């Protein structure tokens, strides 16, 4: 971190790009060369947060009177602008994260970002996300209503699709009718600034309140805690490290403020002997593609594989070890990620995990760490399950070898909560009894359970759950991906009892606001008038 410079990026407050009142500044790092990028960004004082909160509070009041169609117009226009600015956004994100221009940024993450904004716009326009419910006998009607200003803390690993002013939390909060205060991730502040510029253009062109989208880059830890617990805040969406997330959660909880966290996950993959007998080489390919994709920097990266001892298992581990050792490691997002990965590997090996390949120190000339494979047996894992679930975020994984299916299920029983859990099994019915036991044990531990596929793909589907039991997230009942369910985090359930028609929200009046609006009317979900 440097002292304050005269050439410091501006923050976006109440529709205006203005100078911050910074206590200091920082620079992002180009991980491709492990070198500091030239642009300086401010670490805001509470004065900036105060200004953003005041403006967001006013915007929240104004947005409650805006028709949902106008908010949906903004989301769709913003998606169009993102697609038009693809080349600029991709170059900025490549420089700040090292993620591949193509296919990762240009062909996968940017289209996903635009598509999820449009999906949020569609459910915003129809109102279906709000679960409108009408009971004509009692005269009571209910739906979810906007909660208030939402703070979004974006992660380092998805600068587009989870960005603080472009990603899924942002889209859900806006579609639910709330203004957003984005807190950029320090790994890609310039990319986030470019998104905020496009968002503000779309705000202006659609006539939404100026403070619908605001951006600051960084605060002190104390001000971050103060921000998420401020009385003007409706809720917070956070994706990042467990330690920082829990600190923010403690502050928000003390103030009674909702905060939705995505934290750590080792995403266990169970592979049965029958599956290895049938298609061991193909599963090696599946695993290598998944675990090294994006240098392992996915929240659904398979950080733990659980197997039953035997010749097939030894062949599988040997093949994975060879592929790890012979494949050049990719670029990590930042020096902090490389340092954290090395620290996690040291923790695991000090507890007794056998280092099969990799380990050591990060590379000096770029942000990179050797592809790392470790191994423990089931008994060793059960001696310290908490320690052996230390998340090694990056291109690393741990093989846990159980003596039999009973011990394998015992290992699963000692897992913390995870985003995903996978089971590879024989295609015939020879293992159905064992797989039933494994599935029964695994299902309560994960938010999404998969068969015969790796977990790294997170489809933007209405049926998707990108969540899970703690510590994968702070609450097992919500998802960060999947419209319309993701919007519920940022709504307040409100009942209207004996309220006159003209005083009801449009969503609850006798005439439906759109032909696509689905409402629960006297116990039946249907479109049309009451």
What does this structure look like?
The protein has 530 residues and is of the alpha/beta class. Helix content is 38%, strand content 20%. It has helices spanning 46-63, 68-84, 86-97, 101-126, 168-175, 189-206, 221-228, 242-254, 273-292, 311-326, 335-351, 378-383, 385-388, 405-413, 432-442; strands spanning 11-13, 16-18, 22-26, 29-30, 35-36, 41-44, 133-135, 140-146, 150-153, 180-183, 213-216, 218-219, 235-239, 259-262, 268-271, 304-308, 354-357, 372-377, 396-402, 418-424, 446-451, 491-497, 519-521, 524-526. Helix 3 runs antiparallel to helix 6 and helix 9 (273-292) packs parallel to helix 10 (311-326). The longest helix has 26 residues, at 101-126. It is globular and about 75 Å long. It starts with 10 loop residues before the first strand and ends with a strand.
Features of this protein?
530 residues, alpha/beta, seven-stranded mixed sheet, five-stranded mixed sheet, 24 strands, 38% helix, 20% strand, globular, disordered N terminus
């Amino acid at each position: 971190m440097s002292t304050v410079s005269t050439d410091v990026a501006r923050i976006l407050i109440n529709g205006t790009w203005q100078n911050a009142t910074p206590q200091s500044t920082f620079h992002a790092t180009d991980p491709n060369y492990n070198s500091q990028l030239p642009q300086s960004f401010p670490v805001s004082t509470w004065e900036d947060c105060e200004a953003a909160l005041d403006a967001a509070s006013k915007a929240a009041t104004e947005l409650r009177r805006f028709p949902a169609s106008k908010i949906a117009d903004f989301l769709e226009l913003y998606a169009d602008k993102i697609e038009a600015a693809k080349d600029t956004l991709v170059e900025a994100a490549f420089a700040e994260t090292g993620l591949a221009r193509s296919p990762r940024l240009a062909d996968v993450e940017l289209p996903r970002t635009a598509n999820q904004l449009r999906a949020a716009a569609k459910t915003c326009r129809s109102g279906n996300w709000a679960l409108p419910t009408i009971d004509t006998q009692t005269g009571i009607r209910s739906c979810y209503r906007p909660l208030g200003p939402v703070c979004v803390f974006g992660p380092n690993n998805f600068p587009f699709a989870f960005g603080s002013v472009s990603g899924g939390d942002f889209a859900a909060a806006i579609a639910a009718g709330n203004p957003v205060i984005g807190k950029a991730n320090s790994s890609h502040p310039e990319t986030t600034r470019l998104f905020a510029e496009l968002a503000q253009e779309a705000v202006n062109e659609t006539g939404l309140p100026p403070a619908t989208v605001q951006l600051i880059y960084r605060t002190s830890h104390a001000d971050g805690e103060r921000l998420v617990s401020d009385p003007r805040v409706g809720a917070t969406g956070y994706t990042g490290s467990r330690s920082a997330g829990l600190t923010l959660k403690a502050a928000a909880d003390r103030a009674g403020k909702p905060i939705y966290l995505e934290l750590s996950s080792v995403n266990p993959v169970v592979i049965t002997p029958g599956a290895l007998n049938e298609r061991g080489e193909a599963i090696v390919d599946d695993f290598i593609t998944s675990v090294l994709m994006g240098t392992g920097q996915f929240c659904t990266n398979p950080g733990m594989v659980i197997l039953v001892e035997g010749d097939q298992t030894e062949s599988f581990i040997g093949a994975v070890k060879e592929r790890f050792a012979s494949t050049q490691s990719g670029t990590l997002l930042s020096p902090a990620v490389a340092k954290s990965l090395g620290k996690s590997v040291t923790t695991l090996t000090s507890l007794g995990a056998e280092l099969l390949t990799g380990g050591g120190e990060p590379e000096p000339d770029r942000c990179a760490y050797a592809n790392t494979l470790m191994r423990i047996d089931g008994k060793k894992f059960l001696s310290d399950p908490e320690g052996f679930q230390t998340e090694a975020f990056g291109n690393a994984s741990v093989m846990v070898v159980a003596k039999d299916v009973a011990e394998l299920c015992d290992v699963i029983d000692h897992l913390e909560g995870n985003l995903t859990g996978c089971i590879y099994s024989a295609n015939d019915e020879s293992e159905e009894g064992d797989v039933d036991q494994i599935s029964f044990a695994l299902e309560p531990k994960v938010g999404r359970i998969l068969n015969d596929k790796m977990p790294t793909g997170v489809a933007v589907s209405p049926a998707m759950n990108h969540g899970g039991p703690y510590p994968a997230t702070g609450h097992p009942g919500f998802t960060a991906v999947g419209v319309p369910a993701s919007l519920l985090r940022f709504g307040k359930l409100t009942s209207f009892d004996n309220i006159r028609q003209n005083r009801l929200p449009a969503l609850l009046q006798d005439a439906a606001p759109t032909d696509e609006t689905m409402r629960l009317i006297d116990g039946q979900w249907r479109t049309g008038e009451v």
